[in-house]
């Protein structure tokens, strides 16, 4: 958001101008950092052209990919470690970026840096590109003078996230292909095969078995009302997506995802592994526990687990230990709680959390390898039942007609 401000410096001089910040509070903090006491901060009304509005729609908006962010973090780590000025580094990366969207983002961040903003504040203007965790790590790196180390940590975090997504996609590829094939076979049978048999049976005037009547009725319904079915599916999809965007809907949906058979425990392991590693990175960078929990809970992509993390932060703010807060959350196994306890006793919570993340990652690897093996028997049984129903529904009348013909003969 763009704000107009007016303020005074320590010598009494009046300053006014424009400032980009995600909120009025962030704008006030940025002015205080510049030794300017804000007198007034007003949000500017921004009018967008039709093309800009279309580009902001999810359908047309291009996204910065995870691979581009990883390459950016690696390059920033190498260049900042070599001592190259930050603005020069960002300009160079913006000019050499293959993504026009990311190039525009980097140019905007550089412009804000030249205007006196910090790098973390400049990145806050692009929440679709830089997550809360990303910005928090950059903020800590700037304040501690270890920006290169912050980019190195971020590249490691993003690489783990990318690898997990790739492995999950690979594990789900076979079940997804089988499900699409089953749906395709059902459509072909209902729209092409059964109507042909139904016309033959009606000409012969034979009494159809119950299973065949069900198949013929289903086929006739789909042939007559397929457009209503498509509309209903599309409407239900839109309504569910809108419901999921509400706070309560997101909470219920994310809780349901963790309880889904087979896939639910895996999603919970992935989310907790990401939490443990991100939380460890925050603590090792020198961030206080409560602030680190706030950042990590905001960066967690599951609202149900994020709710528990915020409850952990509230417990710690009331004076409870990390171990007690973690135990009350009911999210961690006794082994994990024991490792957190050892970390608190030895003063190395971040190291213990890295071990926790490694432990979760091993479980994730094992679960991903077993995912296809777990789903495959279910798919085979479903396919067998489907083939059996279709075969009996189609061939039972033929057998009956054949038996009746032989009896007459």
Short synopsis of the structure:
The chain has helices spanning 24-33, 50-56, 66-81, 86-96, 100-114, 119-123, 132-144, 147-204, 210-245, 247-259, 263-284, 289-299, 303-317, 322-329, 334-346, 349-408; strands at residues 2-9, 14-20, 36-43. By secondary structure, it is mainly alpha-helical.
How would you describe this structure to a colleague?
The chain has 409 residues and is mainly alpha-helical. Among the domains are: 1-47; 191-409, Type II secretion system (T2SS), domain F (Receptor-associated Protein). It has 16 helices and three strands. The protein has helices spanning 24-33, 50-56, 66-81, 86-96, 100-114, 119-123, 132-144, 147-204, 210-245, 247-259, 263-284, 289-299, 303-317, 322-329, 334-346, 349-408, and strands at 2-9, 14-20, 36-43. A three-stranded antiparallel β-sheet has the order 2-1-3, covered by helices on one side. Helix 4 runs antiparallel to helix 5 (100-114), helix 9 packs antiparallel against helix 16 (349-408) and helix 14 (322-329) packs antiparallel against helix 15. The longest helix is centred in the last third of the chain and has 60 residues, at 349-408. It is elongated. The protein starts with a strand and ends with a helix.
